[in-house]
Amino acid sequence: MKDILTAPFIREMCKTCANMYRLGWDERNGGNISYQVPEEEVAPYLDLQNVLRVIPMSFNSGYLVGKAAEESANKALELDATPLAGKIFVVTGTGKYFKNVMDDPETNLGVVRVAADGKHVELLWGYADGGRPTSELPAHFMSHMERLKVDPGHRVVMHCHATNVVAMTFVHDLCERAFTRTLWKMCTECMVVFPDGVGVLPWMICGNDEIGRATAEKMKDFRLVVWAMHGIFGTGKDLDEAFGLIETVEKAAEIYIKIMNTPIKQDITDAQLKVLAEAFGVTPRAGWLDV
Ligand code: 2HA
Ligand code: ZN
Q1: What share of residues in the chain are helix, strand, coil (percent, to 5)?
Q2: For 157-178, how does the pLDDT look when each residue is reduced to its tens digit (9 = 90+)?
Q3: Distance 212 CA to ligand 2 centre (A)
Q4: Is 31 close to ligand 1, i.e. is its CB under 6 Å away?
Q5: pTM of the shown model
Q6: Ligand 1: which atom is nearest the Cα of residue 230?
Q7: How many whole angstroms from its chain centre is CA 36?
Q8: What distance in Å separates the CA atoms of residue 160 and residue 24, rounded to the nearest whole number?
Q9: In the chain, domain spans
Q10: Cα-to-centroid distance, 116 and ligand 2 (Å)
Q11: What is d(CA 252, CA 274) in angstroms, rounded to the nearest whole number?
């Protein structure tokens, strides 16, 4: 068996978490990532027959208390991830800090396989201090299921508290069309990177199945979903793609926050956005350009 600490999927998770931490998007235990890794990529590093623990997929992570915890526990019974049964994911741990992943991946990450019942995961490696997957696991797994329906190459769901995206949700209309149009106009790259736009959810309690379901519903249509006053979800075929999407939205949001109170002398017009989309062979979401 090869040393799992040298496995590309663990090295990439470590590097990604470190990058996101340094960008200031994952303070304390903020943020979470799940990355589906094909069995043949995991097999050289782990005995796939050796299940260390079986963990319920929805649980009270300790993050929710009182009525919210009770409601979350009841809703959890409804979660059905059987479409993901047998799939293996690397997932950041609940309560764990992105800051610490690089130095101690075995405590801060876990490699889990979705059990046949779609309600548990089988721990194959990690969470070495008795930990569990992220409290946002329902949002992640429901999102994976929706993205896989529209994109068979999909593999990554990434959540973080990208600073300027969060700031923008306080001062900008939360209408998805308006929010996306502002982002598109902040830098030329945006239309090319996310012509499909961003979905936006209003403020909701996090860490439960309800926000998970609402997020997954948006994922039918969007690769990016903003949680108002909280953060953003990005998805993709690999960590770079999900990261690149979030990074581009965050850059646009940063420019917006920098210029929002300054008189604007010129901007990118809708006609120019259309020309841009044509030149790069991308299709803007229908009806979102005024041309
Ligand atoms: O994992 O970011 O949304 C901590 C969070 C919850
Ligand atoms: Zn969060």
Answers
A1: 45, 15, 40
A2: 999 999 999 999 999 999 999 9
A3: 12
A4: yes
A5: 0.95
A6: 3
A7: 12
A8: 9
A9: 4-280
A10: 28
A11: 18
